[in-house]
Design a protein that fits this description.
Distance between the termini: 48 Å
CATH topology: TIM Barrel
Structural class: alpha/beta
CATH class: Alpha Beta
CATH architecture: Alpha-Beta Barrel
Shape: globular
Radius of gyration: 19 Å
Oligomer: single chain
Strand content: 5-15%
Helix content: 25-40%
Order of helices and strands: HHEHEHEHEHEHEHHEEHH
Strand order of the largest sheet: 6-5-4-3-2-1-7-8
């Protein structure tokens, strides 16, 4: 089954049919329902679903063939929203945000606000327009959250994965050369498991990565671990291998009610390339709309209405609440009006 056949409707039906305690019911049993925002401090903006890679775990099912691109008008509206509502953090994601033709323009405009800018990158996409991208990132002190799924090339089974690894290591070295990985230009690595398990202990893994990459003269600030969400290509894979029930039960067995207070959907709003608003990037991938409908677009942004909404939940939400919680929320960290200097 290709990406187009594995539609968001099919994914939602699969998740609804899994014979497990529903996430809403789980919250009710723990006196945590309804789940509502604490504040709107972050915008998670998906500029495009186009990507120079096609990862097997991608929840958005990004690829080089995707065409969705945010219009310049919507980007300008997003900048105005950030300024008007004193949004603390703007995280740019995709796909590969760097592939958007107006990427550097957008960074420059966001740099004129008080928000901290965070780029979520796969590292290889920077190469497509390297010098202008690196220049605009350093000029605006953009925090980089970079995916690096392995520190051992020998563990990668395919030639393509090994080539991506080499390009990623090369880009990390270039980022270090221009000051990233130090105090004033933050470079964080993002890890998610390559198998069907939950991530290892974050601090233990960070120490391993720092030791191994130091051997290559590479420094970074922090490592964040992400749980593979049971949506997108990862959902298709675990379904095809008859692992869906096992994986969902793994998430449920490790449900931690203490994580609910800090899940990212309580502090951010996700913006799709077409300007639609979602409770998070995972709901965006599943096309689970934000409610109420009167504030479901960036052009209708209303902080008071958004703070008072109920967050739209589903069984995929177990992915953010297993063990100590997925680190998505920790990448959204900048309070209002405290932009790094």
């Amino acid at each position: 089954m290709d990406d187009e056949e594995f539609s968001f409707e099919r994914q939602r039906k699969l998740l609804e049919k899994v014979d497990v305690l529903g996430f809403e019911e789980q919250l009710k049993q723990n006196n945590l329902y309804p789940l509502k925002p604490k504040e709107i401090n972050s915008l998670d903006i998906s500029l495009t679903y186009k990507c120079d890679q096609k990862c097997r775990h991608c929840h958005v099912m990004s690829s080089p063939s995707r065409k969705e691109m945010m219009s310049k008008d919507i980007m300008a509206e997003a900048v105005d929203t950030v300024r008007e509502y004193d949004i603390g953090t703007v995280e740019l994601t995709g796909g590969s945000p760097e592939l958007h033709p107006n990427f550097t323009w957008f960074i420059d405009r966001l740099g004129q606000t008080d928000a901290e800018i965070v780029l979520r990158t796969n590292l290889t996409a920077i190469k497509t327009n390297e010098k202008p991208i690196l220049d605009i990132l350093t000029k605006n002190r953009v925090t980089i959250n970079a995916s690096l799924h392995s520190i051992n090339k020998k563990n990668l089974k395919t030639k393509k994965d090994q080539e991506i690894y080499d390009k990623s290591i090369e880009m990390l070295k270039k980022l270090n050369q221009i000051g990233y990985g130090k105090e004033n230009l933050e470079l964080n690595l993002v890890y998610n498991p390559s198998d069907y398990n939950l991530p290892q202990n974050e601090k233990t893994l960070e120490k391993q990565y720092k030791k191994k990459l130091r051997e290559k003269d590479i420094d970074f600030n922090n490592l964040f671990t992400l749980t593979n969400m049971p949506i997108g290509r990862f959902l298709r894979e675990i379904k095809n291998r008859d692992k869906l029930d096992d994986y969902m039960n793994l998430l449920i067995d490790n449900f931690n009610p203490d994580t609910v207070k800090n899940v990212m959907c309580r502090e951010l709003v996700s913006v799709a390339p077409n300007g639609r608003l979602y409770d998070c990037g995972f709901n965006q991938a599943l096309k689970k709309p934000i409610k109420p409908k009167k504030v479901d677009k960036i052009t209708k942004f209303n902080e008071k209405e958004l703070i008072n909404r109920k967050i739209n939940l589903g069984n995929h939400c177990y992915g953010c609440t297993a063990k100590k919680g997925s680190s998505c929320f920790r990448t959204q960290k900048n309070p209002k009006n405290t932009k790094p200097q």
